[in-house]
Design a protein that fits this description.
By secondary structure, the chain is mainly α. About 85% of the residues lie in helices and about 0% in strands. The chain has 6 helices and no strands.
Length: about 180
């Protein structure tokens, strides 16, 4: 339910961000992050990890990242290249899902590097937004924000490379296995 709530908050967040309501956007983003953490804690503590939750949680993360990138890019808070680099990785992975499905596999499990990259980006983007809310903190906030952004990009793409390598291995192994059976 918390992941579904986070998904419902994405359009509210984006509308607020696009309308220059940076403080409210930051509050929504902080609330979404808190519910993300709480959702994970509840699932692990009460052993209520479900396949639906495993799909909704990363989807909500991605949508918040995309919404933040869209809003910050349109508002001129971040350069377009940052949004393009982050979105390109997910588009690359989107292209491998049909390959997995054609070979009878579902989505791959989340890799710890992907989690670390997402974590870094989910820190970077609110910090970049915070620089607009409190411009007098730029000298502290912006170096932290860009540090998290660069690390997030590297880890995000590194995990993307691991996912693609895993898909290639699965597909090659599947093809090799089926040719031995024939």
């Amino acid at each position: 339910m918390l992941s579904a709530l986070r998904l419902l908050m994405v359009p509210v967040f984006l509308v607020l961000l696009l309308n220059g309501e940076f403080v409210w956007s930051l509050i929504i983003l902080a609330f979404a992050s808190a519910t993300d953490w709480l959702d994970g804690q509840i699932a692990r503590r009460f052993n209520q990890i479900t396949r639906l939750g495993q799909m909704l949680d990363p989807a909500a993360d991605r949508l918040f990242i995309f919404a933040t990138l869209i809003g910050l890019t349109i508002n001129g808070n971040i350069p377009l290249w940052l949004a393009v680099i982050v979105v390109s990785r997910d588009l690359m992975l989107l292209a491998v899902y049909p390959v997995l499905a054609n070979h009878g596999y579902g989505p791959l499990p989340v890799h710890f590097l992907g989690k670390a990259g997402t974590f870094a980006l989910l820190y970077a983007l609110p910090l970049l937004l915070m620089a607009d809310v409190w411009p007098e903190s730029d000298f502290i906030v912006l170096p932290l924000a860009w540090g998290f952004a660069y690390w997030g990009i590297v880890l995000y793409w590194l995990s993307g490379g691991f996912y693609v390598a895993h898909v290639i291995k699965l597909v090659f192994y599947d093809r090799e296995k089926s040719s031995k059976v024939e």
